Amino acid sequence: MTEPQQSQPSQDEQPNEKDSVGARLQPVETGASYEPPPMKTLQRRLVVLSLCLTLFLCALDTTILATALPTIGKELHVSAREYAWIGSSYTLSTTAVTPVWAKVSDIVGRKVSMMTSTGLFMAGSLICALASSSGMLIGGRTVQGLGGGGCMVLITILIGDLFPLKDRAKYYGITGIVFGVAGAIGPVLGGVFSQAVTWRWCFYINLPFEGIALIGLFFLLKVDIEKEPLVDGLRSLDWPGFAFIIGGTICFLYGLEAGSGGLAPWKSAFVICLLVFGVVILALFMVWEAKFAKNPIIPIRIFQSTTNIAAFAVANLHSFIFIACDYFLPLYFQVVLGFSPIISGVTLFPLILPMSISTGVGGLIVRKTGNYKLIILVGATLMTLGIGLFISLGQRKEWPKLVIAEVIAGLGCGVLFQNPMIALQTHVRQRDMAATMSAYTFMRGLFVSVSIVVGTVFIQRTVHGGNLTAVSSDKAQGETDKHGYVSGLRVMWAFYTALCGLMLVSAVFIKPKPVKAEEVSSEAASEAQQSDKC
Question: What is the torsional sign of CA 505, 511, 516, 521?
């Protein structure tokens, strides 16, 4: 692979817009002169294996509970409010610490940061496995997320440290495949463990394998980087920015949870204050980032381009929508259709397999043609159609309708994992590339967390007793409960379909970069996909 040039072409060298057929990825400043530490072939392979094993387990925990949650809910008597937090606590904490771990690794070193984050992930897994209440489980998931977020972002950074520029695309591709496989088999493993053994093995499984990876990294990982002075490094972090965005998000989410879970009436001062304070704090975050932050988490200048705004909108809406499929389809399969956890996981295959395939095919098409806008439009259209078909799902098993809807939604969802980032990379200045990728990952994670809560809001009021994980044993009441589930889910899917339409409209405003398709950088595409998925 040819390394991207670090110098920018002059204005006269820019290609004519009329001759363009696609879009080019602008070269990323990756330090082409950087010399990675020398490693023997066996050592390099073992390090990569350890990193991939860690990534696999962290990614697995994103989806493994999708089919196990109903079983967990019955055993721990999880309420509707707690049901949402079991999922969102992991994704929210993972997202919150992503920028922090990246900066901390510059201060204390990559190896110490990687070992610490891995240890946190293992500690959280143990807490979850031993959980005797929903509160303990949510706490364990939060600790898991604090460690898992560090592991995933540090793996991306370490690949850049360990390998020369020409080899990084290959290793980013490997980690992308690992992440995709983990996401695909997570629901199946969750179903197998919860039905054949116990749901606690969803967390116990992390300990021996993560322990092996930790030992491998301790003895084999050798990374020498120029560390920042501790005090200067800590001062450079945007602490007020972190406080604003995390505090505002938690206030807003908890307000939604309190109103939807019956903790307080929607019109109560408690709920209204939480929602208002959340919005106000998030607004203060934007003001702080724009006017006062020296090293902003999200530089406001990256939103000055219409294409950038549209690409962020597509990416964030995509995250908001696809996570609902992972969490609420298994709920529908088990509670309404009566599927076992294993069958529920297998029933997700028509969604997950096309999603994984289209991710790779979409990236290949963009690398060959450079036309990322067309792929984004096709993906948004397919997602709108597929999610729209979910609205018609009822209390009866209608296999053709279900499979067709999942396949269409999966094909559309897959091509939207990396291509919005590719669009961003073609329009962002060199000096803003790293900040843009960090903001991209951070915002997508937040939208995932919010989506789980919002989806619950739509269906909880139609469920008997506020319990999302079971129906009444009384036959008549059970049918009423199922009808309530279906009614709530239909309203929820209609809402997500409307968001798909908004995503499609946003995609129209993405402008292709007028350069030759042959100049698309495959490395940048691989980095985009990995950054998105982490």
Answer: negative
